[in-house]
Design brief:
Helices cover 10% and strands 44% of the residues. The protein is built from four helices and 58 strands.
Length: 820
């Protein structure tokens, strides 16, 4: 086990070492040295070999246009990437590096450290007549501007283009032209003068110079032996990037000449420079750059563009101490291929989610070939959208902005952009989601409910995402006091969602109302919660103040007209006003008080047609003591004896039920009765009432139908009648049902055949039994006679013979007979 453990440990170490080796790997550079020297005009050639894609880096210094002159080639057979700078000049002196793609290389005039963990470095000297690595363009007025933050490290990049030791000095002048000490600066020949942790007092002019001059043959002409640097230490504000016309980069075709412009809108009196950088794959001979420092602009022309010229084109603005750039990716296309490309220029692209009542914005780039295109914005309803106070579409070249102001959940959905060119049309969808807190309300609610009865309530909620709904009912048994309270149970909850509006939900709840209370419907989603609260009152009258309907009133009835006023809203001062000619001996008024209402009950006995009319009840309001009246219109109907209409199946006829052919016969009888008062209908069989719900019979809720589920025999036949009766009279109709149970001749024949066959089978069984018994009797008698004969045999059969038979395992005749 220890050996196995050691093996695993060694393997793990090997894998770890291999992994570290891979992560720390870097390309091999040729020449494999820390530095080398070439002469001005020679080709600068550096090669790197590795097992992946390799990138090269050279020092990024102001006004250094090396990017116009180099190229990179890859020899697949040798696995070698080669960087070539033809006709090198002294300003090409500096650090060069190669590394695998994806590794960041920092390599500019302010870079001090050159880590070599993943990067291979080399320093190149390009010796020339001028001593400095920076080209002063033979002009003493050239000034390099350097900006640095307070506390950072400052580099005065005064470097020589030869490894030969020369004396280099640095002088510092403040704004007051006072010479300051530079002894604290450290000099590194491959970097320059270095000062760490700088302060704003180190701002000013720095002069770097050598100890001797180099002369041409003409005495009046000499190379500069001094470089000037203006340094600013402090908070540096990055300038606005230069401006380019993005439309110039659209629809670029192969084989054509293309011109790109870049400029700055800064103050023209301020010193700055604008320049282009292009992919190294573009040959210099097909490029032309024109600088216009007065206009702060640079123009780039690309001749005979090729598909391989694609890449990032960068315009940089160098403004004294800081610089800023803008980069655009350029593609060159086959002029015979048209296209419509839609991309997100900012934000969430085509899918936008906003809060309710804010603005939804889509920023899209629409690039087409041919360049000219139109955009039609189409709404969810498939109708075009025009600019208005609600919608706005702006277009500038390829940049398009679409806005929906004050977005609500009604705006949620998919919108369409129909983009058209001369050759093609393409639809692009914009999807909007609006997050909205629920809006909730209780709908179709009745404020007063009968105590002890279940009531159904409905609650509507709208929100995005779709919210949920919960119910609560808080009862106050001692209302109007709310000191004592309890929650009632919700017996049933049902939900409905809309087929047409996906952010609306309707909930129905059933609650048994026993006391006055507060009904709460609460709806929540991820945005928040909302609730609606509605007071619910209990009344054992018709609402908070009303007359309970006595129903149909027929001449001769005795009726009670009950006027009830809610005890929460009214005093006990409640009374009926009777102004018609009703005989007072048939009329009485009584008052009573319940837990919930004050009631006045008007009773009219033996109602007559003349009692029809308006009856008024008045009550005094508890809050303002005003009198409130409610009226009831009494309509007295004529009395009519019951009648049964002709659509009823009880029509005094008879029907026959044949149980032989239809043993599952069922019958439904109807009896539609009318009369005033409404008659009571009773079902009878042979004059005796039927039980309403039994195993054999079912009677409908209003007694208008009788359903006979089955018939067992002739006893279920008879006279089935319905009787309609009110206090005016009685009417009865019947249906006589005859049950047929006689057997047919065919069935009798079959029964006879079955009986005959049964008799034959019984006779055969008896015969077989007797025969078997007789055979057994004969066998027994034969054995008895044989044994008797053996007992009478002569005695010459000796015992020895018998023993011999036994010894030979042979059975004697007697034994065989006995075994029978």
């Amino acid at each position: 086990m220890e050996r196995i453990g050691s093996t695993w440990a060694l393997s793990a170490l090997a894998v770890s070492a291999l992994f570290l080796g891979i992560t720390a790997r870097k390309p091999t550079m040729i020449p494999a040295k820390a530095e080398f020297l070439i002469q001005e005009g020679d080709d600068l050639i550096i090669s790197c070999r590795g097992d992946g894609d390799i990138q090269f880096s050279f020092m990024d210094t102001p006004y250094h246009d090396l990017h116009w002159y180099y190229n990179i080639k890859f020899d697949e057979n040798a696995g070698l990437h080669t960087f070539t700078r033809p006709n090198a000049v002294s300003e090409d002196t500096g650090w060069y590096a190669c590394a695998y793609e994806g590794i960041e290389i920092k390599n500019d005039a302010q870079t001090i450290e050159h880590p070599d963990e993943n990067i291979t470095w080399i320093y190149v000297y390009v010796n020339s007549s001028s001593p400095f690595a920076q080209d002063a363009l033979y002009d003493h007025s050239l000034i390099q501007f350097i900006g640095q933050k307070t506390g950072g490290s400052l580099v005065i990049p005064c470097r020589l283009n030869s490894p030969k030791k020369q004396s280099v000095s640095l002088r510092h002048y403040s704004r007051l032209n006072m010479r300051l000490s530079t002894q604290s600066f450290q000099y590194e020949p491959k970097i320059g003068f270095i000062k760490h942790n700088v302060s704003d007092s180190m701002s000013g002019t720095y002069l770097c110079h050598t100890s001797h001059r180099h002369h041409y043959s003409e005495a009046s002409w000499h190379f500069p032996t001094m470089l000037t640097y203006e340094v600013l230490i402090g908070d540096l504000v990055e300038p606005m990037p230069p401006l380019i016309d993005k439309d110039e980069f659209r629809g670029l075709e192969w084989g054509q000449n293309h011109t790109f412009n870049c400029h700055s809108e800064d103050d023209v009196d301020e010193l700055l420079r604008v320049e282009w950088k292009v992919p190294y794959t573009v040959p210099r001979e097909r490029l032309r750059q024109i600088h216009n420092d007065e206009m702060q602009a640079a123009q780039l022309t690309l001749f005979n563009a090729q598909e391989s010229d694609r890449g990032d084109y960068t315009c940089t603005k160098i403004k004294r101490y800081v610089k800023s750039s803008v980069t655009i990716h350029v593609e060159f296309h086959d002029p015979d291929v048209t296209y419509i490309n839609v991309t997100a220029s900012s934000g969430n692209g085509s899918f936008v989610t906003v809060a309710e009542k804010t603005t939804a914005i889509w920023n899209l780039s629409i690039d087409t070939y041919p360049k000219a295109y139109t955009v039609k914005w189409i709404g969810k309803d498939k109708l075009p959208i025009a600019n208005s106070g609600k919608y706005l579409h702006t277009q500038s070249g390829t940049d398009n902005t679409f806005k929906i102001f004050h977005a609500t959940i009604a705006d949620i959905g998919v919108y369409t952009l129909r983009i058209s060119t001369l050759n093609d049309t393409k639809d692009h969808n914009l999807e909007l989601t609006v997050l909205a807190q629920p809006v909730v309300r209780i709908v179709n609610s009745v404020s007063y409910h009968t105590p002890g009865q279940p009531a159904t309530f409905s609650c509507s909620a709208t929100g995005s995402p779709l919210p949920n709904i919960t119910w609560k009912y808080l009862e106050y048994p001692d209302f109007p006091s709310k000191t004592v309270s309890k929650y009632a149970s919700v017996s049933e909850i049902r939900y409905e969602t809309s087929r047409f509006f996906s952010f609306h939900i309707l909930s129905h709840s059933t609650i048994r109302i026993n006391a006055t209370g507060d009904l709460t419907c609460r709806s929540c989603n991820v945005v928040g919660c909302s609730e609606a609260v509605e007071p619910i009152f209990v009344s054992d009258a018709n609402g908070y103040f009303g007359v309970m309907d006595p129903g149909t009133v027929v001449e001769g009835d005795t009726i009670n007209l009950t006027c009830g006023a809610s005890a929460y809203n009214f005093t006990n001062n409640i009374a009926w006003e009777v102004n018609n000619s009703t005989e007072h001996e048939r009329l009485s008024i009584t008052n009573r008080t319940t837990k919930f209402t004050y009631q006045s009950i008007l009773q009219i006995s033996d109602v007559k047609k003349s009692d029809s009319g308006e009856y008024v009840c008045r009550a005094v309001n508890k809050d303002n003591h005003n009198t409130t009246a409610v009226s009831y219109e009494l309509s007295v109907m004529d009395a009519r004896v019951p009648s049964i209409n002709d659509e009823s199946t009880t029509n005094n006829t008879e029907i026959e039920i044949d149980l032989i052919n239809d043993e599952h016969a069922k019958v439904r009888l109807t009896c539609f009765a009318d009369g005033m008062p409404n008659p009571e209908v009773t079902w009878l069989k042979d004059g005796k009432p039927l039980i309403k719900h039994s195993e054999q019979y079912a009677i409908s809720q209003n007694n208008s139908e009788l359903y006979i589920k089955y018939f067992r025999g002739s006893a279920d036949g008879g006279n089935y009648s319905c009787q309609a009766k009110n206090r005016v009279g009685t009417i009865e109709r019947y249906m006589n049902i005859i049950i047929t149970v006689e057997q047919s001749n065919y069935e009798i024949i079959w029964i006879s055949l079955v009986c005959v066959l049964s008799a034959i089978l019984a006779a055969l069984l008896i015969y077989t039994t007797l025969k078997v018994k007789r055979a057994k009797h004969l066998k027994k008698e034969f054995r008895r006679m044989a044994l008797s004969e053996l007992d009478q045999r002569p005695s010459e059969d000796s015992v020895n013979d018998e023993d011999e038979l036994i010894s030979n395992n042979q059975e004697s005749p007697r034994d065989r007979l006995i075994g029978m």
